[in-house]
């Protein structure tokens, strides 16, 4: 199966965005051919699954079933995806501060 140029460009953009994290794990000899080959293997593996098999998988299963020997970059991107929601709690932290500020304004103004 042929991967669309849109998917390829988004994959390259992800790799460029998280290049520091990927390089930290000694994956320094990456070029476009290696990345395209890895993406082709990954896309072929998961496009052959029927929709019911794909619906039963979650991101943790996919991460633990991915071999870093075969796919050097994709496990790193999946790990970032798994941990990303934990690191984006700024809106939740600001809400209690807003309540304290509101109480201060009510009491002292």
UniProtKB/TrEMBL annotation:
Pfam families named among the record's database cross-references: Dimer_Tnp_hAT
InterPro entries: HATC_C_dom
Domain HAT C-terminal dimerisation: 63-106
Gene Ontology molecular function: protein dimerization activity
Domain of life: Eukaryota
Protein name, as recorded: HAT, C-terminal dimerisation domain
